[in-house]
Design goal:
The structure holds 2 protein chains of 2 kinds. By secondary structure, chain A is α/β, with parallel strands linked by helices. Chain A contains 19 helices and 21 strands. An 8-stranded mixed β-sheet of chain A has the order 6-5-4-1-3-2-14-7, sandwiched between helices. In chain A, strands 9-8-10-11-13-12-19 form a 7-stranded mixed β-sheet, sandwiched between helices. Chain A has a 5-stranded mixed β-sheet with strand order 16-18-17-20-21, with helices on both faces. Chain B has an 8-stranded mixed β-sheet, with helices on both faces. The chains are: A alpha/beta, B alpha/beta. At the A-B interface, strand 7, helix 8, helix 9, helix 10 and helix 11 of A face strand 2, helix 4, helix 6 and helix 12 of B.
């Protein structure tokens, strides 16, 4: 076996997180490629939640959706999730009152699943621990079942409880007791030790990318699943000295970002769909005053409060079309942490060079899932400010700010840095920003701004094709679809099906030529998109006149699993 | 304004005139905005501030239509949001003076939350609160400050909902600088603005102003007959918030002008951001690659 999927289930707040973290980190130390997603309800404590960990010695980017091994912490979560274990899978639990889960155990047996049971609470107590430490007993059992070297998991438990030596001793006894109580069941191919990858979630990567590219202010109002960007930046502030400010609402956050960018620093905000709705009037303002602006929109399913802790690609339309009036904008979709780290840096360059709003879309499954990725490369993306600096400031005239004779991108400079001043005017204006309602001038200024759309489009990198030519079936998508499609290309090849995938990191302006070419070169091109209406698909069809052969859509709050796509390919 | 300042202003014609606009004014003939703009230019000239030293932030409203009528760096944003925009400007570069302006509609209906938090955060900037008790730009609708019994476009009969008391409200939030002026008394307003500019914190300056077109009930003469200088009050201590709160409660017959309350002890926003202690640069000067090795190490 090379690819394994684990599902650890329990009530929210029942210590599930520690189990997931210990196991994930131990796998990373062994050199495995890992994708770890936490599913949880929008509650503080209680409710079912789970930790899904896929790992392989090969590079993986998504969850497969087929659970090989399930670890259950309590009965309510067993009832909620037991059916997710695949036929013939391994069910590890420590629930002592077995008559209470008779139905579940019978179902397991009927489906050929192997049950591994140790009375975990009793075991924990027998070695001097308490009932809460049953989690650690389960970790020991799992590790043994996987057939891995004890030292890797021991190291992680030691690391986790390093600051609590008394607890650590008991936890280690529980771990060992669990490990010794069961036997090895799986033979998993282990990776050769290469350079250790980092394990990181998408929001953390966005925060690090922002810090790295010289962002000096962050303003936000908390909203899942964007909130951890605020936490990460706040946690780093004592070192980075970045101004991190929780604003009174989303309108404030975006206005402060606009103000700080106007003055000439790098600032941004992050929110989710509902918060972004509140920001869109400001988006339009940034459009007319040609102010750089970067907004991260972390998508979760709407409408309304929707499913606050689940995932969707449902806010592409508002990213592309929100805000009154017409103005240029860039819409970018990230896929995994490396993308997050790099694209946030490009977002700032584009916003500053083209003096217009950039919306960086991410998704819950990217925000909070952890992925193993290569250590981030620093200084590989140049900081491009598009600002007039130095002696050039001496030769400016106020009219240069919005000069219509420019190629669309007129000169921008920090307020106060030159004797030549200008008005950043939300009313339609002429070249130095003075208000005008003159028809010819209004037309010329609108055309000047809209010229930037073409410039940006030409400057954007081409979308990338994954997989080989002459595919049996092809897909086009954006955002997290890249992750699942990367895995699908490999898995489908093992099944003898050739799949390729065209990925758009930059969604707007659309490089439609790439789609046209892809349609020409492939016999069956389908859309893959994590929403109901196929927003990106509709956009491509409208821009190119092409028609997708079929559409793979999903909108239940869960991300695409590898199996979803394989089933679609096989017509299931 | 003292005589010596008037004399001094005479010598500062260049400093005053640098802000003078070539654009055509679009305010009504007797609008209070002329007096406010005049006082602002005087205050800047007297404080030695030039066009490169200040950023003017305008809300949407009659005052906002002045955003290109003063020569300098200006930003004209959205209705109700100017305080957030101005705060973002100020924090990015605290060396620039930031002067924001908005009317009673923007401040007390469209965006009072921004006022609350601007006061609470004590962002160091001047806020000129234009109070003409109606929505002039949209043809005279009622604001949250229109008095009961007044007649406003769009309100059947007369205004029957009691107005808010803006100064009482701001004082209740723990403001560090609260002043009131009248657009018809330019000298007094100039003095107030000079002190506001020099205040290290959020300086709230209410300016009572007539709206000759839509607020016929309280023209300039009406205000002129009622305004008094707070300095004429015996034993008035502007560091005493309870005296200030009592004073602003007594509206109707007398409007006391001047600096009604000032707290010189509280630090302004940047001083509260302890993690930036010891940093002498401005955010606008800090944009460069930051080495994240120390953070990658922990992953």
């Amino acid at each position: 076996m090379s690819r394994i999927s684990l599902k650890i289930i329990g009530q929210s707040g029942a210590g599930l997180l520690s189990v997931g973290e210990i196991v994930t980190q131990a796998l990373v130390e062994m050199g495995f490629d890992v994708v770890a997603d936490r599913e949880y309800p929008s509650l503080i404590k209680g409710g079912h939640s789970c930790f899904v960990i896929d790992f392989s010695k090969e590079d993986i980017f998504a969850l497969c959706g087929n659970v090989d091994v399930m670890v259950a912490i309590d009965k309510p979560s067993m009832e909620a999730y037991y059916k997710d274990l695949k036929d013939g899978g391994i069910f590890i639990h420590g629930y002592e009152r077995q008559f209470g889960i008779k139905k579940i155990l019978e179902d397991m047996e009927a489906r050929g699943c192997k049950t591994v049971y140790v009375p975990t609470r009793e075991t924990a107590i027998s070695v001097g621990g308490n009932i809460l430490m049953q989690n650690i007993v389960l970790v020991g059992m799992l590790w043994k079942v996987l057939g891995f070297d004890y030292k890797f998991v021991q190291e992680q438990v030691e690391k986790k409880f390093a600051s609590k030596p008394k607890l650590l001793e008991l936890d280690l006894r529980c771990l060992k007791a669990g490990f010794d109580a069961v036997s090895e069941m799986l033979e998993i191919e282990t990776p050769e030790k290469g350079e250790k990858k980092i394990l990181i979630d998408g929001n953390h990567a966005i925060a690090l990318g922002a810090v790295h590219c010289g962002v000096r202010a962050f303003y936000a109002y908390p909203m899942s699943p964007s909130s951890s960007i605020l936490s990460h930046l706040a946690n780093m502030a004592s070192k980075t000295k970045m101004l991190v400010k929780q604003a009174e609402d989303e309108m404030t956050a975006v206005q402060m970002a606009i103000g700080s960018m106007y003055m000439g620093t790098r600032a941004f905000t992050a929110t989710s769909g509902g918060g972004f709705d509140l920001m869109t009037e400001s988006l339009s303002l940034a459009g007319i005053i040609e102010n750089p602006l970067v907004i991260v929109v972390a998508q979760r399913p709407g409408p309304g409060t929707g499913l606050p802790t689940w995932t969707l690609q449902g806010d592409l339309n508002i990213a592309m079309y929100s805000g009154h009036g017409e103005f240029p904008r860039v819409v970018i979709g990230v896929s995994e942490p490396t993308d997050c780290f790099e694209l946030i840096q490009h977002a700032f360059n584009l916003a500053e060079v083209y003096q217009t709003p950039v919306i960086l879309l991410t998704e819950k499954v990217i925000c909070e899932s952890k992925y193993t990725v290569e250590r981030f490369k620093q200084n590989s993306i140049k900081i491009e400010r598009g600002l007039v600096e130095g002696d050039d400031l001496l030769n400016l005239k106020g009219e240069d700010r919005y000069s219509v004779s420019s190629n669309g991108v007129s000169q921008r400079w920090m307020p106060g840095s030159s004797e030549a001043y200008y008005f950043a005017n939300g009313d339609e204006h002429w070249e130095r920003g003075e208000l005008t309602e003159d028809a010819e001038k209004a037309k010329a200024m609108q055309e000047k701004r809209m010229k930037k759309v073409g410039l940006i489009k030409d400057a954007l990198p081409e979308p990338i094709v994954y997989g080989e030519k002459d595919a049996d079936i092809s897909f086009i998508g954006w955002g997290s679809s890249k992750n699942v499609m990367n895995d699908v290309v490999l898995e489908a090849a093992k099944q003898g099906v050739k799949v390729n995938y065209l990925h758009y990191s930059y969604v707007m302006p659309l490089k439609e030529e790439a789609a046209i070419k892809f349609f020409k070169e492939n016999k069956k091109v389908c859309l893959i998109e994590n929403n109901f209406t196929g927003q990106f698909g509709n956009f491509i069809e409208a821009e190119t006149g092409l028609k997708f052969a079929d559409r793979l859509l999903k909108y239940d709050g869960r991300p695409f699993f590898v199996n979803d796509v394989l089933n679609f390919i096989h017509g299931k | 304004m003292e005589n010596k300042d008037v004399k001094k202003l005479g010598e500062l014609s260049k400093e005053y005139m640098q802000f003078e606009t070539p654009e055509v004014f679009t305010w009504c003939g007797d609008c209070g905005n002329y007096g406010i703009q005049n006082a602002l230019k005087r205050a800047l000239a007297l404080e030695g501030l030039g066009r490169q030293d200040v950023v003017f932030c305008y809300d949407v409203g009659c005052n906002g239509n002045g955003s290109d009528k003063i020569e300098g760096y200006t930003i004209h944003g959205l209705h109700g949001r100017v305080l957030s925009l101005a705060a973002g400007c100020k924090l990015a570069n605290t060396k620039q003076k930031v002067i924001a302006a908005a009317g009673d509609g923007a401040t007390f209906s469209e965006g009072p939350q921004h006022l609350i938090h601007a006061v609470r955060n004590n962002y160091p900037m001047v806020f000129i609160f234009h109070n003409n008790e109606n929505y002039g730009l949209t043809t005279g609708q009622a604001s949250a400050l229109s008095p009961c019994g007044s007649h406003r476009n769009g309100t059947p009969g007369e205004v029957t909902i009691p107005p808010l008391n803006p100064l009482q409200f701001v004082l209740s939030l723990g403001a560090t600088f609260v002043a009131r002026a009248f657009s018809g008394e330019v000298s007094n307003l100039t003095e107030v603005l000079r002190d506001a500019i020099n205040h290290d914190g959020f300086a709230f300056v209410e300016v009572l102003q007539a709206c000759p077109t839509y607020n016929k009930e309280t023209p300039d003469e009406w205000y002129a007959a009622r305004v008094k200088d707070v300095r004429e009050l015996a034993n008035y201590d502007r560091a005493d918030i309870w005296q200030a709160r009592k004073l602003v409660e007594d509206v109707g017959d007398d409007f006391y002008l001047g600096i009604l309350y000032e707290d010189k002890n509280r630090v302004s926003f940047m001083g509260t951001q302890k993690y930036r202690d010891g940093v002498s640069t401005e955010l606008v000067e800090e944009v460069k690659h930051y080495d994240i090795s120390e953070f990658l190490k922990d992953l």
